[in-house]
Amino acid sequence: MEFEYKGRKVKVQTLEKGKNYSTIVLHFELPNSEHHGYLLKVGDKIVAKGEIAKAVRDAKIDGVEMAVAPPADTNALIMLRVSGEEREVLDKVLPVVEDFLKKRGLI
Question: For position 2, what pLDDT does the model report?
Fold first, then answer.
């Protein structure tokens, strides 16, 4: 699934689809970003992708069962296990991700 969120491209890749859940990775367009394993670098700012996942976990979003760093060999920002309608859950997750990236000076 691909869509735009506040002018940025978002790509969601489904890794596993169960009866009542999906495991997905979330790609968020960040120009001039570099992905090094579990680290994200934009300009001179570096953040661990696990910190993004922690921000989502701390938000206690209904429908998010798991939020962790994505596999190290991807350019994804976060891996999620969600229950319910994926897009509805993402509509709650994306503001948290965007806010985290803004606070860290990555966007």
Answer: 96
- Ordered by start, the domain boundaries in the chain are 2-104
| pLDDT at res. 105 | 92
| CATH assignment of 2-104, among 3.90.70, 3.30.1360, 3.10.620, 3.90.1150 | 3.30.1360
Dihedral, 23, 38, 93, 99 alpha carbons, nearest 10: 180
CA angle 35, 107, 75 (to 5 degrees): 20
Residues of the chain scoring pLDDT < 50: none
The reported pTM is: 0.93
Closest by CA position to 106, among listed 48, 17, 45: 45
The pair of structure tokens assigned to 22 is 């999906």
